[in-house]
Write a structure and sequence with these properties.
heterodimer, A: 222 residues, alpha/beta, 6-stranded mixed β-sheet, two-stranded antiparallel ribbon, 9 helices, globular, B: 317 residues, mainly beta, 9-stranded mixed β-sheet, 4 helices
């Protein structure tokens, strides 16, 4: 069992950071919420705006306002950045979204979302796509991975902009500076939430490798 | 300069262009060279300085000789418009295309078969691209929904020293019917060839693509790229062969095929090296749509059918 006894709530207009070592179950939790194929809870409830998500396929969850920026986003031959950013109806203009993630629209709108983009460019375009959708819940899986140090501030601004637009943000990250953006945070260890508090306390707990269940060693799945 | 077609001659073609969303007045302009044939009738022809077009009706069809003169670099493309506007018919075309040294030209071959129920379009092309010349040859097919069209393109291409050849074949509008491509390219010293084919088969369409590049000159370069999608009961066989026969020759074969429903595809990237300093690589992927792509689009609210459509259209665009 990868996740067990998990209890987590993210409020509208709130950033919630999820911290944990590799393999703690962070991405698994994101996939469960998004409804990825092969990721179904064996028991328990998952509510979004008081309605169960369990029976809904991924696209229905997206249509209700949940979306995700993938840690390693897929690439699409022949699909332009412009079309990619307007797939979901384009609540926010593609140009504006690109600018927000630090990409010049003129240089990118006509490019394909394919392997000619660097990893960092592709990650930014993924964030821009989330911005364009203006979701109610944005799940961001390691949004800063692969982004150069000089551009991290732009990514921070993007996450703040999502919050400002009213989105709830579930932020999965290893970066202490990014985790600090949140109002609340949780630490996952071995599929359990072992600490849920203000970000600075959770960060301190995480850095000190404190876990009451495994005494600082990474919990094993049960 | 050749004989210019009158509007009456071209009315059917203009209407056909409009129906497929193209503006004919932007294609057949007074500044462009073109050749227009309905079946075996040569309806219109125009040359421009630097291009000599000599078409003739033969016993079995049409023979066209096109020569781009040495050193001419044409800014406007040359248009070849091949169509049939009857329910049944055939079109056999022999094309002799020569690019003299250091010339440069782009061809657009518009093959419009939206009207016929049953028809055959066969092309036999002999293309010589001489030293330092460059040819871009785009062939776009527009078919109707009958499934009764048979397309048989054949090309033998020879590239001289430092010549460049890029061809892009596209049949993604309407039913394919039956397609049987066979191209072979002999690439000379320091010359470059790129072959791309994009085909979308539906219902019971049958697709066969055989493309071969022989890298015969030192430092020759070759790329074969195939993008084929099939759905329903359609089938495709794709054979892309590259042979590295000279020092420094580099080739790559890239096949990507998507299967939907009960479609069947086989892709065979064939690579052979006969010179120790040549290198040829290949990649091939056949199957249903990539799951990561599908999920990325579904996370934006597209249902599975919409997502697959976006992926396939992107691949074939």
């Amino acid at each position: 069992m990868i996740l067990n006894g998990l209890d987590l709530m993210v409020n509208q207009g709130e950033i919630h950071t999820l911290l944990g070592t590799n393999g703690a179950g962070k991405s698994t939790l994101a996939f469960l919420i998004m409804g990825r194929e092969g990721y179904q809870p064996q028991s328990g409830a998952m509510l979004f705006e008081d309605k169960s998500l369990l029976e809904l396929p991924m696209y229905e969850r997206a249509r209700r306002g949940i979306t995700m920026a993938w840690q390693e986003p897929a690439r699409f031959e022949g699909l332009s950045v412009s079309d990619y950013l307007t797939l979901s109806g384009g609540k926010v203009k593609a140009e504006k979204c690109l600018k927000q993630v630090g990409l010049e629209p003129k240089a990118y709108l006509k490019r394909s979302v394919d392997k000619t983009l660097s990893g960092g460019e592709r990650k930014r375009i993924e964030l821009a796509a989330v911005l364009a959708m203006q979701p109610k819940l944005a799940i961001l899986d390691e949004p800063a991975a692969g982004i150069d140090l000089l551009s991290l501030d732009e990514i921070t601004d993007v996450i703040q902009a999502m919050k400002k637009a009213g989105s709830a943000v579930l932020l999965i990250t290893h970066r202490e500076d990014m985790a600090g953006l949140a109002e609340t945070a949780s630490q996952l260890c071995g599929g359990h939430i072992v600490c849920h508090d203000q970000p600075e306390k959770v960060i301190a707990n995480y850095k000190a490798r404190r876990c009451e269940r495994c005494d600082g060693k990474t919990c094993h799945y049960e | 300069m050749g004989k210019r077609a009158t509007m009456n001659d071209l009315d059917q073609l203009y209407e056909a262009f409009r129906q497929i969303g193209e503006d004919p007045t932007q294609i057949l302009t007074p500044e462009t060279a073109y050749l227009v044939a309905y079946g075996h009738n040569i309806v219109g022809m125009q040359s421009v300085p630097g291009v000599i077009i000599v078409p003739e009706r033969t016993k079995d069809g049409i023979h066209a000789s096109v020569t781009v003169l040495e050193g001419y670099k044409l800014e406007q493309p040359v248009h070849l418009c091949f169509s049939l506007f009857e329910q049944f018919g055939s079109q056999n075309i022999e094309l002799e295309l020569t690019l003299q040294p250091h010339s440069l030209v782009t061809f657009w071959s518009h093959c419009i078969f939206t009207i016929p129920e049953v028809a055959r379009h066969a092309m036999m092309a002999q293309i010589n691209i001489e030293e330092g010349a460059e040819l871009i040859y785009n062939e776009v097919h527009y078919h109707g929904l009958s499934g009764g069209i048979e397309v048989v393109p054949r090309a033998k291409v020879v590239l001289g020293h430092l010549a460049r050849y890029r061809t892009d074949f596209s049949l993604v509008q309407g039913r394919v019917g039956k397609l049987d491509i066979d191209y072979s390219v002999d690439v000379g010293k320091e010359a470059v060839a790129e072959l791309t084919s994009k085909v979308y088969g539906h219902v019971a369409d049958k697709i066969r693509i055989r493309e071969r590049i022989d890298l015969n000159g030192d430092n020759a370069r070759g790329l074969i790229k195939s993008r084929v999608a099939v759905e329903n009961e359609a089938s495709a066989e794709v054979i892309c062969a590259t042979y590295g026969n000279a020092a420094g020759a580099r080739g790559h074969v890239d096949c990507l095929e998507i299967v939907r429903g009960s479609g069947v595809v086989s892709a065979i990237p064939e690579v052979r090296v006969t010179h120790p300093q040549a290198k040829v690589t290949h990649e091939a992927a056949i199957g249903s749509v990539d799951q990561a792509q599908l999920e990325t689009l579904m996370a934006r609210g597209l249902d599975p059918d919409q997502a697959v459509d976006v992926i396939v259209r992107g691949m074939l665009c």
